[in-house]
Write a structure and sequence with these properties.
The structure is a homodimer.
Chain A: E1 4-11, H1 22-37, E2 44-48, H2 62-69, E3 76-81, H3 86-99, E4 106-112, H4 119-126, H5 142-157, H6 165-175, H7 189-194, E5 197-199, E6 202-203, E7 213-221, E8 234-243, H8 258-271, E9 280-282, H9 288-297, H10 306-311, H11 328-332, H12 339-352, E10 365-372, E11 377-385
Parallel strand pairs in A: 2-3, 2-4, 9-10
Antiparallel strand pairs in A: 1-7, 1-8, 4-7, 5-6, 8-11, 10-11
Chain lengths: ~375, ~375
């Protein structure tokens, strides 16, 4: 496996893009990523999307569709899907394709269009990430499944709901400075406490907003593209992928993200470093409980002590381990099949020193973690400036 | 890229499996493929499926789901989708993963469950392989789009409907000897001519049947798994992937499969051989016109002369280039997202000399070609006994 670099990235603001189609959104991200990379063509396009088939866009074979739309007709193209972990999975497929020497230039684009779907249809669509026969068939929404985990976690470790507030407050504060974020307003502890209940104990401000969005990155062999000196190189130093049961009740410890532990260990081993060397972390805070669980499973917080990292301020932009530096899923927004690519692009922006008001100090090594389902598929990537 | 071998394969008969779930079908294919390979575990599972999200199974993240069901919880898993080209795309992703050294053992499993869906829902589901905005929105079914191509082809080259009969007759004759095939009865020229019209000029016996099915193969580095002498090794000698516009009207020549030409050239180049060295060919005969077009685009028949290969008997098991040796899509059946994996497994069975009554003579080098949409995504793989 040869070393792989990220040459450029393209982001579409996460919003309700009523006037734009799914393919148009993906095309915009691709155009921006190619421009940013100084390229006109790639060898392979790997697309991630979760819901286009399930909720009404009724378009499959989106890889070929988007390649053609972008003027790349003819190149290899396919779609990768692993629920909300689709983006990370597609990124890893691109990484392997370029790392193997199979292709020289790969474009990974994640796209999702959710606002044209009715609320109930969206809820049903998101529930396809749960076990259809043993979870969804009984009626719980995807929020409800996360609420079960959060309630159990509070029971086991004694945390109050208010102890999770720092995760959401940090995410909103960071999103307020990010032009690509969906929810660009800061929130207070009081607002967090009083937010509308969605599924006890998860309230509105524990939850990430859905949205329309697309993000793309260009991957190339590091040795062949040493850059033109205009920005530091970003190298993919480590990659890990692991799964767990989809159904929460099938797991030995529903409050421990086994696949996060496993995939982060793979990524640490490949990168030759440990959690103490990670400077910042784009984690999968679809719900605030998931931020706590990721911090624990990846070796940052002690077991059961994830919320302490929020309460102690470690997760702030100036803290020991800044997280959700662009707003995270919580406030940048969660266009489900695209999220994993947003995360990687945000890590790259930090390493390039191009995160503007979101720039964290000492951004030398960053990690991104993307989760499909309530912990069933987890991808971890470590990027470094090189 | 290191050389990759197929260690084993597992096939579920293509039928209406009313009593079995999609996950159960996939699990059966995985179990059989592992048994056939003499393995208990792999590093990565790559699943192909087209319609589970669109037509009512309502289960995404099928990679993790199937891995867990098969006792492989924890391993890397994801789904690849490229409409009816999903299986070939997943096989190529597995090939690249193993070839790169990223993983040592990959399992590629294709699965589709179509019989629980109503006819109109299936028709709508299959139409998601067409361009949603510029084709499907106008009402044509996927059959209708292929009928447009066939009509145009007949107009350009002067072939009569009866000239396509040998493709269907050969497929049915081969399927009659294949225990995994859906339509195990021979047909006659008269039956072909009198079959019920589906969409002029495509009649019932030009068309492949849908079905429930699953197929799996295990991939490993050829150097590390030299076999125990019980069967010849099967090496993946060449692989190609290319795309075209999804919408037929966007193509310069709707009767020419540009992506088949392109991907087969890639595969020939990688394998270091040409069409004249291919001993047999599992092509994507979803409709008889597609058999003709594949033979032309891959360099076998002259342009516009595909039907001649049927009329001359070249495609028979004893002919110059046996095709659809296990019945093809036409009669083995077309469980859409699984088909590409069936094709590869069938080529491997020929090369192992394990095709029983379907065995073709001199099976040293075989080719499989899988098509997504009406020619939008095309994967070509060349396998050889080694």
């Amino acid at each position: 496996m040869r070393e792989v670099a990220i040459l450029g990235a393209g982001l579409v603001p996460v919003e309700e893009h009523w006037e734009r189609s799914l393919v148009d959104l993906a095309g915009e991200a691709v155009r921006l990523a190619l421009e940013d990379s100084g390229l006109e063509r790639v060898d392979s396009l790997i697309l991630s999307n979760m819901l286009a088939a399930a909720t009404g866009v009724a378009q499959l074979n989106l890889g070929a569709q988007v390649a053609d739309w972008c003027g790349l007709r003819g190149i290899e193209a396919f779609k990768v899907e692993a629920a909300c972990g689709s983006g990370g999975s597609a990124f890893r497929a691109g990484l392997i394709a370029v790392g193997s020497g199979h292709v020289d230039l790969a474009l990974v684009v994640g796209v999702e269009k959710m606002s044209q779907t009715t609320g109930p249809a969206t809820t049903a669509g998101l529930a396809t990430a749960a076990d259809a026969d043993y979870e969804a068939a009984h009626g719980p929404s995807f929020v409800a499944l996360n609420a079960l985990i959060m309630r159990r976690y509070q029971h086991e470790y004694g945390w109050q709901h208010a102890d999770f507030a720092p995760f959401s407050i940090n995410a909103h504060a960071n999103a307020a400075r990010n032009p690509f974020a969906r929810l660009r307003h800061p929130i207070t502890e009081k607002e967090y406490a009083r937010a509308r209940m969605i599924c006890d104990p998860i309230n509105l401000l524990d939850s990430s907003p859905i949205g329309d969005g697309a993000a793309a990155v260009v991957l190339a062999p590091a040795s062949q593209f040493r850059g033109e000196g205009r920005r530091p190189r970003v190298i993919v130093a480590g990659s890990g992928a692991a799964t767990d049961s989809i159904a929460i009740h099938d797991r030995r410890q529903p409050t421990w993200l086994t696949a996060a532990e496993r995939s982060s260990r793979q990524a640490y081993a490949q990168a030759g470093l440990g959690p103490e060397q990670i400077d910042f972390f784009e984690l999968h805070d679809a719900f605030s409980i998931m931020a706590a669980l990721s911090l624990e499973a990846c070796g940052f917080a002690e077991r059961g002590q994830g919320p302490r990292w929020g309460l102690e301020g470690f997760i702030l932009p100036t803290g020991r381990l800044p997280i959700s530096t662009h707003g995270g899923l919580k406030a940048r927004g969660h266009p489900v099949g695209a999220t994993g690519v947003y995360q990687v692009a945000e890590v790259a922006r930090q390493l390039w020193g191009e995160a503007g008001p979101n720039q964290v100090p000492r951004a030398g090594i960053g990690m991104a973690q993307n989760i499909g389902g309530s912990g069933a598929t987890i991808l971890t990537h470590i990027l470094r400036a090189g």
